[in-house]
Specification:
The protein is mainly α. The protein has 1 helix and no strands.
Length: about 70
């Protein structure tokens, strides 16, 4: 009877470890996905603002030359 209780507790601990691992892995994957999205959005915004700056500087140069 004592061996059955010990075996059941070991199995329960192993199952809890597996559940804990998979839950944390999903959270880590979700966090990495959010970081990728944030980096992608920042890059797109940087490109858009850079293009706007180039257009503005070109128009200012053309106005000053005209």
């Amino acid at each position: 009877m004592k061996n059955i209780i010990i075996a059941a507790s070991v199995l329960g601990a192993a199952a809890a470890g597996v559940v804990w691992y998979t839950r944390n892995r999903r959270q880590a994957d979700a966090a990495i996905g959010q970081m990728k999205d944030a980096a992608r959005n920042a890059y797109k915004k940087m490109q858009r603002k850079g293009k706007e700056a180039v257009r503005m500087s070109n128009s200012m140069m053309n106005e000053s030359l005209a």
